[in-house]
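ok so I'm stuck.
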Amino acid sequence: MKFFIDTADLEEIREAHDMGVLDGVTTNPSLMKKASQRAGRRLDFHQHIFDICELVDGDVSAEVTGVTYAAIMEEAKALAAIHSNVVVKVPLILDGIKAINSLSKLGIKVNCTLCFSPTQALIAAKAGATYISPFLGRVDDMSADGMQLLQEVVTIYANYGLETQILAASIRHPVHVVKSALMGAHVATMPLGVIKKLLLHPLTDRGLKQFLTDWDQYKQTPR
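replied:
not stuck anymore, here's the structure
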C-alpha cells in the first residue's frame, strides 16, 4: 500500500518524507487555506504545488475549483503544466466526469474526489480516472459505514479488472489504515498525526523502557 500525506503544509510533508514512508501528497482548497493561515499570508497556489512536487518523488494531487466542464478543463491543464508529479483532483459531478474522460485521453492523470457511493466509483473508473477517493471518515460521520463503501468499491473494481487505483481518503485513525490495507486499497492518504499513530504501541514503549533500564544496570555491574 502507498502512503500519501493529506496536507498542504510543507513542514509536515518534509517530516513524513524524512521518515522514508511517503509516496505522494493530496491537497484540497481547505488544506491550502490552513497552510496559508500557518504562513500568515495567502500562498501562491501554483508555486506552492510546485514546491510540494519538488519535495516528493510521487504523485501530488492539486484540486480544481471550477464546476463546469470548460472551467475544469482550463484549470486542469494549467495545474498539469506545473510539474510532472501533478495529479488533477476533480469532483465527482456530471461535468467533472466529462472532464475526467477528456483529461484521461490527453494523458493527464486525475484523482476523482468526493466519492461516497460504489456507483459513483464505477462511473469514475469507466470515465478514466487514475485514482478514485472514497471518503471513509465523512461516511462514518453520517452514521454509515465508510469501510463497507471501500469494500464494495474494491470488489466491483476487482470483478471487472478496472485499472483505477483506490485511494482511501478521509482517514481518521490507524484502524482505517489497517482495514483499507486488508481490503486491498492501493493508497491511503492521511494527516501526519495518523501516520505517526501507526508507530504507536504500548508494548513497544514498555519493552524499550525495560531494555534501557536493564542496560543501565548492566553498565553498573562490576567487572
